[in-house]
Amino acid sequence: MNPLLNKLQPYPFEKLKQLFAGVTPAGAYPAISLGIGEPKHPTPAFIKEALSANLGGLAAYPSTQGNEALRAAIAGWLQRRYRLAQVDPATQVLPVNGSREALFALAQAVIDPIPGALVMSPNPFYQIYEGAAYLAGAEPYFMNSDPGRNFAPDFRSVPADVWPRVQLLYVCSPGNPTGAVLTLDDWKELFAMSDRYGFVIASDECYSEIYFTADAPLGAMEAAQQLGRDGYPRLVVFSSLSKRSNVPGMRSGFVAGDAAILKRFLLYRTYHGGAMSPPVQAASVAAWNDERHVEENRAKYIAKFSQVTPMLQEVLDVALPDAGFYLWARVDKRAAISDTEFARRLYAEYNVTVLPGSYLARDAHGTNPGRNRIRMALVAEVDECLEAARRIVAFASTLS
User: Fold this and answer.
1) pTM of whole model > 0.85?
2) What's the start-to-end Cα distance of the chain, in Å?
3) Domain 3-42+293-396 in CATH 3.40.50.1010
4) Can you spell out the DSSP letters for 92-115?
């Protein structure tokens, strides 16, 4: 067996299962889970219809590059959403089976596993980044989130002697779990470091369409264009229909950016077996070409967050995020309690599941930036989220 597999840590939900082992939740309350970021809003009917209408495509092998209609739909969406002057669907876009598998696979394609190779990522983070680093033969390096910067990673905290070893840098904007969105100044700084040291930037933007203000979150390609970076050098952006269109089971997303990197990544994926099913391609074209359902979906999240956040602020240290569908809350506002104890007791006494923040982070630079925080995924319909909030308020009120 590959010995690098021994470096992988249990996934946060496996840790949560172990935390809840032996606990019988209060029978008076139906179960509510805010633990997993799985969209629960209904899948739009037109996407399902497009999927079923194209089942004849199952009789043919799909191209790893995807068909022209899908690449054109993705390129068109990128141009509309981020006001990009041009995206070449032939060379700067590649469909993938959800952003998760592509985020992992990119590391295998771009890392040269020499001694000391580093993959940099935010902390807390999406655990795929860490696993991708290890299995590509590199080591992860974590940038702790900074509450003073609205939980954006603190790039300036990285020692000067670390940057030359970095081959790949993952960023997540809007962030999971913090909801932080990188600014143009952040991107200017990252691009300058990439130019200086030659590392690839992988920008995970799967939460980009869930936001709460009139201004949509800045994207990496958008920032690159504003900064005059023609061709998006050393930049690969990842996006997905899962959250945007409520189709997590369809496994449909894309990568876009630097054509030279995508050419090599396509070669890797041809061997890896990353082709998207033809019916899924057809349904994806329909989804990327429609914005009305996205606006309706966003309105549901705005309604939930505008009601739930003020309720929870009575008992937790929590604020509306920049974007995304998570609340990132500190739990010791009223009493000294750890994130794991809070989650376990909330489950036992009120049958509500939340994810301890320390499970989403690593001990780095003398601290775990997820400690004493919880992540709450407001993915269910508004009534269920409000009921969960009422139970959390009731539980936290007993902690003084």
Assistant:
1) yes
2) 51
3) no
4) SEEEES-HHHHHHHHHHHH----T
